[in-house]
Structures
1.
Amino acid sequence: MISKSIAADKSLAKDISHLKEVASQIVEKINSLSIDNLLLIADKYGIRKVEKQKENKKGLKPLPNVKDKVVLRLPPEPSGFMHLGHAISGMINFLYKEKYGGFLWLRFEDTNPNLVKDEFVKSFEEGYDWLGIKWEKIHLF
């Protein structure tokens, strides 16, 4: 409010402390008004802004060429602990499985099986379970 006032009238910048005091009084007065009174004032001065709300589309986009059930797989590479990226991809696959009444396969695979540890595999199983992701089949290598 203060910067807009100074932009409209540069001479107001000379006594900024007085301008701050007046602005504070105005804000206090406006804040004490009811919503109905604020709307009446806004209408009177033509300053009521009505924004068209954007339609917030939520949900999964349809999968192309899917007419019935889908088969999806979660292919974690258990050479480390589960992280947020795994959780996100897991949820997307699970939600598509639910949307299409499909089948979800938890298939552990890794290009270097020597790096795989049981604690990493367990972190995926527990993490997906905690997220509510249910699978129909599990395969370890």
Note: The first helix runs from residue 2 to 8.
2.
Amino acid sequence: MNNLIIFPDYLSIDKKSKNIFVDQFCFDQFDGEKIFSSSIFSSLVNIRENRFKNFDITNSIFYKILPLVRDNLNFIHNVNFSNYSYEILLGAWLRKFIQQLVYKFFILEEVFKKEKIHSVCILDHSKYYFYTSETQTIQHATNDKLWNAHLYSAIIEYLNFKKFQFKSKKSF
């Protein structure tokens, strides 16, 4: 039996199963002794061809979402800014956020195709907000284990995998 680890803590570990850390970052963030059966999932997401493909996907999504963001923000603030204006204001943040979604989506898709995952402990992301205090702090968020685990959890729930059991939902 395989247990997927998306948040590096003891509550996510299943000592009766092989624990598969979703990526190297998650494994490196685990505090304490690793006295259980574990491995790190080796994804093909980072090979050169996939990075180019994922960049194109990210760009495509960005340019589909930007007009929707523009329309909503213009309505909320009663202004008439252009796509270009919003690309300057929040383009860097939005692109990085989409890139993280694409990256994590493909890792999860790959892990669920290659490994027989029986359980995963996801976080309750219903009250978690993925925004950052300013555009540049998205870089810090992508290096935060809690932010990453919430994003993985949201994607897993959205994809609605039925092949395994959610061990539990934790919230912080």
Note: The chain has a mean pLDDT of 90.
3.
Amino acid sequence: MKRLVLPLFIILLIVPTISAKEGHMKLLAVKETDNGYEGAVADLYLEIKEGSGRVFLDTFPLTKVDTQISTRFAKDIACSYLNKDCSGYDFIYTIMADSPIIAGPSAGGAITLLTLSLLDDFKLDEKTGITGTINSGGLIGPVGGIKEKINAAKNIGLKKVLIPEGERFVKEENNVVEKVEITVENRSVVKNVSISNQTIDLLEYGRANGLEVVEVSDINGALYEFTGKKFEKENYEIQIDAGYEKTMSFLASQLCNRSDKLMGEVNDVYNDKYNKTMSSILNLTSKTGIAVSKGRYYSAASYCFGANVKLSYLLLALTNATKDDIAEKREIIIKNIDKLEGGIVTREKKTVTDLEAYMVVKERLIESKEYEEEVPKENITEKDLLD
């Protein structure tokens, strides 16, 4: 009996192969400078090839640990959206920038879209950019620094920027300074006068800078803006893990209760000297109410945390805290940081998730010690309150 010998090219046609796919898009981010935060741009690359479901991330300069976690989650969202088994692929992400950027979760939306485009073989509009986190159910979540990111998009020639729904209006917390001519002792003097904060409509701001700014709430909307095609998934339901929602709801409640307590203490000793600071705080607390009403507890917790930081500083300023008072509070903070650090070091780590959580918390504790060194040791000014 003769054995059947097939030519190699026929075997290759019969046996399915997975060819490597590569893609690229611009990533909108912010960077920290001596003058505050500025818009920045990075290059996001993705290579998908045959493998075992692993996710790799290479960044230069180095980014925060939670960028790694966000990248893995974005990949999972993309595979779930397409109802695709990705266990036979390796995903290699690369983020390259000219200077250190703050990426973290805010790159999640962009990473998800690039992953989808390669998995489903379609092209993304290279003149469109996006900023926003990616959440369960494919929801695009809120981020900071959107105005700065719009500036960065303009500088590299993008024509459209997608932002999270509900983030259209932002408070401009920096002083707006105008030159005003006044009369002093019968002679004219030109002085710089600070004008109160203003609310910026980011859609109008983008239009004034030659950009179309569009709010999107989920992956479906983002894909339409990038491709012009409808990608509605009939069976793609929004599912939020009950455990996650319960945890974030509890955290938001704790942080916002502290906001109420601090606000009560501030109101007892408040004076009009700090109206600019109070406006900034009220802006955060108003966003909290909107976030809670929509079930966005992560956002609510973030807003209340920010308000608590400003309220704590404001209380020190209003009560004329002495150098010794500030030193005492600094000592308490350092002791709490050391206590938390000791607890996470000794805690048993059984899973990759445990290790990731440890790395994120550890990194934040290191940052906390660095920030503690930057805190003014005396004479707190309104600039300190708003920075």
Note: The chain is about 45% helix and 25% strand.
